[in-house]
Write a structure and sequence with these properties.
The protein is built from ten helices and two strands. It is mainly alpha-helical. A two-stranded antiparallel ribbon has the order 1-2. It is globular and about 75 Å long. The two termini are 33 Å apart.
Length: 295
């Protein structure tokens, strides 16, 4: 494969994410125009100048009220483009003779990945809560209010399924795999996880996302399949939505004893799931059998 310049390498790492941001911007701009038009149309033309503050506030509130829907729409529009990028990368690897294939994991082997995602979410959130880190980030509180605003079906479908698929395609399927072309696994994992942390835009989610990203990469490397980090990410997000919106674990936060008991249990289960993956997942690389004259 032809040696790439540093500028080309950086561009290859960034443009999948920039594609997502660009589509998000277009979706949000279109929504803003529609909201502005429908809001202004309800006011009398002669009083617009005197009611400008009220109009702007109403437009802002309407925009914030559909922030999650806009994110889900943008993710849905971005996914086909990311799949195209992913397929182009696989063709590029094949043309360069770098394509590698592995045995497929059996369905039951993914069960520890799902449990790992659930326990990592609970343990991570509890440890951040215990550290008090969430209190120093106002943007974290604002984002939480926007994402968990009572739109349960959209949260489960968007945050639990669609957004994890899109983010895993960007950060593990494209960015991390491309980093692995240039650096060993360790530096590639750290750089990818740092970018994933900054992508979340605030300290609390950044710390949480960095740690989870390392686990996403771990299961990706262990299973050699995008299904593993997608299932992990989806399980973590679904648990987060369920706990936030349905109050399934409210009982665990009523006393320090139950809180720390659940935290220790989740950490123990997390370690156990990693052990089970190491113990039962052995996916060997497949090699093509070449025909010989003796055959």
């Amino acid at each position: 494969m032809k040696q790439e310049s540093w500028g080309r390498r950086i561009w290859r790492l960034l443009y999948p994410g920039l594609t997502y941001f660009g589509i998000c911007f277009i979706v949000e701009a279109a929504a803003a125009v529609w909201i502005a038009f429908t809001t202004v149309s309800r006011y009398d033309i002669g009083t617009l100048s005197s009611q400008i503050n009220q109009i702007v506030n109403e437009m802002l509130q309407r925009t914030l009220s559909i922030a999650l829907e806009l994110q889900v729409i943008a993710a849905a529009l971005t996914l086909p483009v990311l799949i195209l990028y992913y397929r182009m990368d696989r063709k590029r690897e094949a043309a360069a003779g770098q394509a590698r294939s592995y045995q497929k994991a059996r369905p039951w082997q993914f069960l520890p990945v799902i449990v790992l995602g659930m326990t990592a979410c609970l343990a991570g959130n509890n440890l951040i809560m215990a550290s008090g880190l969430y209190q120093v980030s106002e943007s974290y509180q604002e984002i939480s209010e926007l994402l968990y605003g009572g739109k349960l079906a959209i949260e489960f479908i968007g945050l639990g399924i669609l957004v994890p698929v899109v983010e895993e395609m960007i950060f593990r399927g494209l960015m991390y795999r491309r980093l692995r072309e240039y650096t060993p696994m360790g530096p590639a994992a750290v750089v990818c996880s740092l970018i994933f942390a900054f992508y979340h835009g605030n300290l609390v989610q950044g710390v949480y996302a960095f740690c989870l990203s390392l686990l996403f990469i771990y299961v990706y490397e262990r299973f050699h399949s995008m299904a593993a980090p997608v299932l992990f990410h989806g399980a973590a997000n679904l648990v987060s939505v369920a706990v936030s919106e349905l109050g399934l674990l409210d009982w665990a936060y009523r006393s320090a004893g139950t809180f720390w008991g659940m935290t220790v249990l989740c950490c123990g289960l997390l370690i156990l799931m990693v052990y089970l993956i190491e113990r039962f997942v052995h996916l060997e690389e497949l090699t093509e059998k070449k025909e010989t004259g003796a055959e």
